[in-house]
Amino acid sequence: MWRILLGRLPTEDSLVKAGMSLASSCRFCYASTETLAHLFLHCPYSHILYDYFSSLFRVHLNFQLSPLEFFISAISWKASPQVRPRPRPSRAPRIIEVYWHLPPPGWIKVNTDGASLGSPGSSSCGGVFCNHRGFVNCCFASLVGIMHAFEVELSAVIKAIEYAFDFGWHNLWIGCYSSYMVSILSCSSLNVPWRFLSS
């Protein structure tokens, strides 16, 4: 901000004035030479950013000012009295403290989890296998494609069971954070997404 206010940013027009030979153009819109006024006041990409902030704080921006005047006025922006603070998110309805327990001797415990970037969205899952002494036997992470969050949780458990079977671990303790998964596994329900019915 200090360099902007003093006009000390090395924009291409200032470098040309200092004697450098440049074919100056704005790196964002390619429609004008790169000057301080263009970059911060007249470039369409700057306007997108300013439109967002002006709608957020409900202020009117005057782009007819010089860059120095514009930034001095920007420093003194104050939100309109009509702006109300955003409501705080509601508290979690119930917080349950969970303790991690070692599996009994001869058992392997796997903790699984999954994540989905959207609903549905690009998804991945993983799991960590531990023995009765708390040592990690192995772990896995896998991309599973485009899925909903509950499908990803199910994919993680299915992959964990497949890995355990391949390693010969028949006494498997599955830990997951999904009540949906617990209900499916505890009652052998067939109420699963159709793509998993053959798994």
In short:
This protein has 199 residues and is of the alpha+beta class. The protein is 34% helix and 19% strand. The protein is elongated, with a radius of gyration of 29 Å.
SSE map:
Blueprint: H1 2-5, H2 12-17, H3 36-42, H4 44-57, H5 67-75, E1 108-118, E2 121-130, E3 136-147, H6 149-167, E4 172-175, H7 179-186
Pfam families: RVT_3, zf-RVT
Domain Reverse transcriptase zinc-binding: 1-46
GO molecular function, one term: nucleic acid binding
Name its key features.
4-stranded mixed β-sheet; 199 residues; alpha+beta
Radius of gyration: 29 Å
Widest sheet: strand ordering:
3-2-1-4
Instruction: Give a short account of the largest sheet.
Output: 4 strands, mixed
Uncertain segments: 79-83
- Please give the alpha-carbon distance between the first and last residues: 59 Å
| CATH architecture title of the largest domain | 2-Layer Sandwich
Number of strands: 4
The domain count comes to: 2
CATH fold annotation of the largest domain: Nucleotidyltransferase, domain 5
Assigned CATH class of the largest domain: Alpha Beta
Tally of alpha and pi helices: 7
Gross morphology: elongated
Pairing-aware structural class of the strands and helices? alpha+beta
Helical percentage: 25-40%
Domain Reverse transcriptase zinc-binding: 1-46
Pfam families: RVT_3, zf-RVT
GO molecular function: nucleic acid binding; RNA-DNA hybrid ribonuclease activity
Domain RNase H type-1: 111-188
Folded structure, characterized:
This protein is α+β, with helices and mostly antiparallel strands and 199 residues long. The protein contains seven helices and four strands; from the N terminus they run H-H-H-H-H-E-E-E-H-E-H. Helices cover 34% and strands 19% of the residues. Strands 3-2-1-4 form a four-stranded mixed sheet, covered by helices on one side. A hairpin with a 2-residue loop joins strand 1 (108-118) and strand 2. The model is unreliable at 79-83 (pLDDT under 50). InterPro entries: RNase_H-like, RNaseH-like_sf, RNaseH_domain, RNaseH_sf, RVT-Znf. Pfam families: RVT_3, zf-RVT. GO terms for molecular function: nucleic acid binding; RNA-DNA hybrid ribonuclease activity.
